[in-house]
């Protein structure tokens, strides 16, 4: 594998213990350049701790980490310069303006001032904060602070952006605006690692996701592959029909993973293809009367619910 193809983030056997409690338990992870990679899982499952380990902000108890080929514990400044981080609570200087905050972090990132000024202006325009650039950050709403956080990532020219629950506490419109900005960053080739509990958003945004459970990665992959593995299908068809038992009618039909009765005359069919025509054909052939059929993509919500079925959701120590 050439250097250009090497993952930009690599972790092997990564472990973090707090006393006798293991917050991150031997995870293996590789994120490729330009990917949007999602971290999912219940509260306390180890997502934030993993992020802190990747950034060199906490020391692993065991395992290895490489970010852009660097060990973040040995090269914290180099990693900090090339990786943007949006924590849950962004630590801006409230008494300084947006512009002053960005100028300060640009200086820390080693940018010369003329170049920094140009980048800061561009970044503030892109996140639509140009008009309020001179206002103290103390006066900003949460949505504006999050956008300012992305402006910092842009101004630094970060190669990787790590975003910890970037939309938590935002109203629907601010959430949509932030998502659009994250998509733009990704389109520019920035590798994005983000954690969130908004599963529909993660499904639409992420190339791959990792599902954390008790400090381990329980599932990892593209959402379509996870739905196929966990639910047995990428499509969910709901069928309404009278005069037949659909489970019996579809017993030998191809592409079908499961037929689940919902209530009298109504079934859910999990399948790995659009099987509506075949269902209609077999139902009519068996003498049934078909009265309705809908299809949708299987959702990450369902994968998540199935994966954690019967588990205690509070995973805190
Ligand atoms: N400094 C610490 N000392 C002791 N325990 C800690 C510390 N930091 C985190 N933990 C514990 O490690 C576990 C994992 O926490 P972490 O913040 O990584 O979870 P998370 O998946 O990000 O959760 P959330 O969705 O709530 O952000 C939790 O049980 C937490 O209480």
Automatic annotation (TrEMBL):
UniProt feature coiled coil, ranges: none
Keyword Protease: no
Pfam family, one: ABC_tran
Entry GO MF terms: ATP binding
Alphabetically ordered keywords of this record: ATP-binding, Nucleotide-binding, Transport
Residue ranges occupied by any ABC transporter domain in the UniProt entry: 9-239
Family classification: Belongs to the ABC transporter superfamily.
Protein name, entry field: ABC transporter ATP-binding protein
Species assigned in the record: Ollibium composti
